[in-house]
Specification:
Strand content: 15-25%
Largest sheet: 6 strands, parallel
Strand order of the largest sheet: 5-2-1-10-11-12
Distance between the termini: 15 Å
Structural class: alpha/beta
Number of strands: 12
Oligomer: single chain
Shape: globular
């Protein structure tokens, strides 16, 4: 039986899950991720079934800082927002999940700021939108993650060199994983990428052994509609 480790880029998963299936409570989103990962394990490669080694979840604690918002001309205290409470509870719920290991980096809070979205900047310069027409959706919070990609790369290397697993499934849409994926493949690891139906660059296919998302898009295939079983 093949032993599989599932590595989850948390920021990517949360954004894709909300886009595909809408917002949820922290406990429901944590259970959704658990079930989503289980679908990978329950899928069979030919006649070979899989055994879960562990789910590694990589993310950062939520930002806890006061940041000036230019549209509202006031400072927002993120430590008192609903998002801050939701993110902390979500991480706490994941820590309680069976066979989950939470790996946390940090946010570069001193350099965080609100920025105009790239499509909004284009609209302003092309005269399709005026400054007076700007709204909340035209702004995004720019804050850099520290340590997350490094932790993913180190775990891929460690799992590969120590022969702890036969297969690694990475849930991510980032191309920064390529060097680590190449290392894993050289060590004989079956490396699968799950971009959750997001498009990936064509040249990435040469650095992975397979591309798989366990469900098609659509509410009928959402994890919450599947039966609950232990990993």
């Amino acid at each position: 039986m093949a032993k599989t480790a599932i590595l989850v880029d948390g920021g990517f998963y949360r954004k894709r899950a909300e886009l595909l299936w809408g917002p949820m409570s922290p406990i429901d989103r944590a259970n959704e991720l658990r079930t989503y990962c289980r679908a990978h394990i329950n899928t069979r490669d030919g006649a070979h079934s899989r055994q879960l080694y562990r789910v590694f979840y990589y993310d950062c604690p939520p930002i806890n800082k006061k940041i000036f918002h230019p549209l509202h001309d006031r400072t927002i205290d993120f430590g008192k927002t609903d998002l801050f409470g939701w993110a902390n509870e979500f991480l706490d719920q994941l820590k309680k999940q069976r066979k989950f290991a939470v790996r946390l980096g940090r946010l570069s809070e001193p350099t965080a700021y609100y920025a105009l979205r790239s499509d909004t900047i284009k609209s302003l310069f092309r005269g399709k939108k005026t400054v007076a027409e700007l709204n909340e959706h035209d702004f995004s919070l720019s804050v850099e993650q520290k340590g997350v990609d490094m932790k993913i790369g180190l775990d891929i290397a460690s799992l590969s060199y120590k022969k702890q697993v036969d297969q690694i499934i990475l849930i991510s849409g980032d191309s920064d994983f390529v060097p680590a994926a190449k290392l894993a493949r050289r060590e004989g690891i079956d490396f699968i990428l799950d971009p959750m139906w997001a498009p990936i660059k064509p040249d990435l296919f040469e650095h992975i052994d397979g591309l798989r998302s366990p469900w098609r898009k659509g509410e009928q295939n959402h994890p919450k509609n599947l039966c609950e079983e232990d990993l």
